[in-house]
Structure formats: C-alpha cells, structure tokens
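Before drawing any conclusions, I needed to go through one protein's amino acid sequence and its backbone structure tokens, quoted below without any editing.
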Amino acid sequence: MKILISNDDGIAATGIKALMTRLSKEHDVYVVAPDRERSAAGHSLTLHTPLRVEELESQFGAKRVWVTSGTPGDCIKLGICAVLEQGELPDIVISGINHGPNLGTDILYSGTVSCAMEGAMLDYPSIAVSLASMTSDPLYFDVTADFIAKFLPKIQKISFPKKTILNINTPALEEEDIAGVEITKLGTKMFTDNYEKRIDPRGKVYYWMAGELTTKHEEDGTDISAVRANRISITPVTFEMTHKSIMADLEKEFCKDGICDWYGYGSNNA
C-alpha cells in the first residue's frame, strides 16, 4: 500500500517519526510535512505567498520526504497535485500522530484533522490520528503507530465513505492497558475557553489563551468518554455540512413551487 503521511506538528515531531518508522516496514511511505509546528492551523491554505518545498534525504524508512513552508492542508494538496509522481500517488492519506488530543468540537481548529480532510476532499481515504495526551514519551507514540499498522488491513474491508475521514484518538497507555476500541460520535468540548490578561514590559495589555482540560461529564458513546475510559476512539467525520433536515422547512417558509421570488429576484423578473 502507498501511504502519504503529513501532520501539523512539523517534520521533526516524535509522532510523525513513529508513524514513518512503523508503517514503512510494510508499506511504501511518502511524507510531505510542514517545516515547523502548525498546530491549530485549521483548514487554511497558502494563497498570497510562495510555497517553499525541499526534498530531504530518505529517513525513518520513508521512500521520499519533503518539507514545506505551508500549512497541513497545503502539504496534502501539494503532495497529491504537485510533487508526487503518478506511480507514487497514495492509496490512503494519514495525518499524525498528533501530540495531543483531537476530540469533540475542538477538531474544528485542528490542523491534524484538516490535513486528513484535504485528502478526503481530493477523494482519497484519509485518517487523522492523535495521541490524546501531552506526554512526550516515545513509547506511547510507538503504541499508537502499531495500532494504525494493525488497523490498515481492516480499512480495506470496508467501503470508505466519500467526504469522510476517520478521526482516531488513542490514550497514552501501554498496549496491554488499553481497554479496547470504540466507534464513537463527536463529543462536546475538550478544553475550556480561558484567556489570561497580562501586561507586557511596555505596559501594553495582551491576552494569552490558557484553556484547560474540561472535567464536564460526557455521555456514553462519544470520543471524549471513550478516551477517558482508556479506549481508542474511532469517529467518522464528514465535511458534508449541508443541514438537510431543515431544507424542507426553509422551502415552505420562503419559497413556493421551488421559486423564492419574494425578494424581487425570482424567475418572473429574469
């Protein structure tokens, strides 16, 4: 299997090294990653400045490795549309392993999740994977990478849904202490929205985001509750944002026979 790997923590991150090392034992791994940390970059793309790209010497078992000045989303789009040759195009895109959780509604800000979303937008099966802890112990990244290696053959047995990624979070535990795997829905918020007001040496006010892990109860079946119970969460996430259930009510209220001409721009005024 050909695998394109990227992340938002940068090419030097422990997580991407662990993923490259483990998956390259069984697969052809290609890497396009940011040249520095781009956490919380969301789904941003570089439009107004040049994208710098440099191919590095092969490392950690990967076939080819590039670094770029761009965002996580840039990495996947650039990899698939520009730098990979035809015979190198991936069977699957994997983003991670992120250093920290990507759970609940916080995924909206995640460069890791957005990186995988870019793969899905280009019609490639895509996975975002995160170690749901701020520990830097390489052991837990290795455990996560090993889980992904064992998970990949199972993915090939399902019809991977369009416009969808699998968002995977693993607890920071040794393999024998993980309490299993759970298919989950997104929870609410993983972090509180706190800002510390500070004064700089010149007397100017500034704010520092200081959100902390929330202790709010989560209902069973969410990604947050699964990780808290020492289970690996797998959440299918789609970028299909149309709220279809309300469309009929909107049509009934604002339109008649499919024509919304109450504002003066209907077909009769064409």
User: Anything to note?
Assistant: Helices lie at 14-23, 72-83, 111-121, 138-155, 223-228, 247-254. The mean pLDDT is 88. The first strand starts at residue 2 and ends at 6. The chain is about 25% helix and 25% strand.
